[in-house]
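In response to reviewer comment 3 from the previous cycle, which asked for concrete evidence that the modeling workflow produces usable outputs, we include below a single protein chain processed end to end. The sequence was submitted unchanged, and the resulting structure tokens are shown without manual editing.
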Amino acid sequence: MFLFGSVGSVVVLALWVFCLIDVITTDEHACRNLPKGMWLIVVILLPLVGSVAWLVAGRPLAGARDLPYKGNTSASVAASRFPEYDRPGRHVPANPEDDEEFLRQLRERAEEQRRAYREQQRLRHEAEEGEPTP
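The workflow returned the following structure tokens.
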């Protein structure tokens, strides 16, 4: 019984030290559910419960530290002024000249705008003249 208690204490101490160091080294913006300072207080004041809570609810998700928009400070990401462009799954625009549907929509929109402009000019001309023109 005494051996189990001392082994359990060492395991809790090791878990507590690991979580304490992990909270300190984690980026402020990568922490989940609470601010980094609050996680630090929780882990310090409640060693076992706070450590388990950090691992379950506060620690960044696996791989989140490697994503450029999650606060990674590597040189390749630091060089990017707009990290939102590095998001995985972001739509990359295609060459519009290769997209026939896009070009067709542009032509239709331009023609509709021309028709609306001609109609507006015809109505303005009728209002100025006072008589309808065919």
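The helical segments are 2-25, 36-45, 47-58, 75-78, 100-129. We consider this sufficient to address the reviewer's concern, and the full set will be provided in the supplementary archive.
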